[in-house]
Amino acid sequence: GAKIVRTPTSASYDSPHSHIKVAQKLCQQIKNSVILDQYRNVNNPLAHYDNTAEEILHQTDHNVDMVVVGAGTGGTVTGIGRKLKEVLPDCKVVGVDPFGSILALPEDINKSDTTFYEVEGIGYDFIPTVLDRSVVDKWYKSEDKSSLEMSRKLIAEEGLLCGGSSGTAVVAALKAAKDLREDQRCVVILPDGVRNYMTKFLDDNWMNERNFATNAEEEEEQKPWFWNEPIHNLVKGMNVESVAPNTKCFEAISIMRRHGYDQLPVLSDDSYLVGMVTV
């Protein structure tokens, strides 16, 4: 199989630790290697121009009033947008971009305190070469909570095993489609599957840890019994080995060695947790 080189998602596109720069470095180091480069490769939007857009036109009998597409590299929205604008000039192309990304226009709507988002596959901190923002009639910004809640809803209620960016597109589509008449048609692109996210937004605990529970009642049901308990209540009255703030170091080490521990809680006289001692 392939060798996987992991890079931090927090790295900016021009950082030497970003997936782009690491790929470029590896390409220089590995003989006979090539970067397909989805950000600059003209075949990226061309594939959607020649295939995805044609499929949409065929399946809808050329009857499309709006298409909603999430933007990542920009290949999908660019290719689909260009073809539909050529064939159906009145068709509205809606782009979706998460808060924390800078792809949307006008640029003012990108202003946000958000610097990180959980939904993958959409949004960037730079404008990819293949992205033609002129084909997009209107942009919607998205946030994690509603996107991931919608993805879970699509799985549970519609049987669509989709990923996070699909939820993002549907949330935006529900807003954008309010501008349509009942007899008009909106196509929403669901570009990802759930396979790569089995331990993420499908996991109730993962959602709870990020305050993404779908509603207050569900959130309370899913939280473990100790969630809202003060820490000192969890150790107070329990038979837990601990030390006091004035315990000497050699005494703490002796206790840990005797019990095979590598850490001990430090409790005050009234059983409040005030720290930890480790070796």
UniProtKB/TrEMBL annotation:
<dbReference type="InterPro" id="IPR046342">
    <property type="entry name" value="CBS_dom_sf"/>
</dbReference>
<dbReference type="Pfam" id="PF00571">
    <property type="entry name" value="CBS"/>
</dbReference>
<dbReference type="InterPro" id="IPR000644">
    <property type="entry name" value="CBS_dom"/>
</dbReference>
<dbReference type="InterPro" id="IPR001926">
    <property type="entry name" value="TrpB-like_PALP"/>
</dbReference>
<keyword id="KW-0129">CBS domain</keyword>
<dbReference type="GO" id="GO:0019344">
    <property type="term" value="P:cysteine biosynthetic process"/>
</dbReference>
<dbReference type="Pfam" id="PF00291">
    <property type="entry name" value="PALP"/>
</dbReference>
<feature type="domain" description="CBS">
    <location>
        <begin position="234"/>
        <end position="279"/>
    </location>
</feature>
<dbReference type="InterPro" id="IPR050214">
    <property type="entry name" value="Cys_Synth/Cystath_Beta-Synth"/>
</dbReference>
<protein>
    <recommendedName>
        <fullName>CBS domain-containing protein</fullName>
    </recommendedName>
</protein>
<dbReference type="InterPro" id="IPR036052">
    <property type="entry name" value="TrpB-like_PALP_sf"/>
</dbReference>
